[in-house]
Write a structure and sequence with these properties.
64 residues; mainly alpha; flat; single chain
Length: 64
């Protein structure tokens, strides 16, 4: 396995761990948040996703 794929896999695994912390610790709050997110319009979700991706790319640039 190349170094790039190994690092991507490590990053993906860490993302899964971080994503699982909130539902594990606060299942009721997480469920309420998911219910509220289901009511948000598509445009707002897309813009939030775009901002999140750009922030992630910016952080990667600063780290490397």
């Amino acid at each position: 396995m190349t170094e790039l794929w190994r690092e991507l896999l490590i990053g993906f695994c860490l993302m899964l761990v971080l994503e699982g912390i909130i539902p594990f610790l606060y299942p009721g709050r997480w469920r309420a948040l998911v219910n509220r997110l289901a009511q948000v319009d598509d445009r707002t979700l897309r813009m939030t996703g775009l901002v999140s991706m750009l922030f992630g790319v910016g952080l990667l640039y600063l780290v490397h």
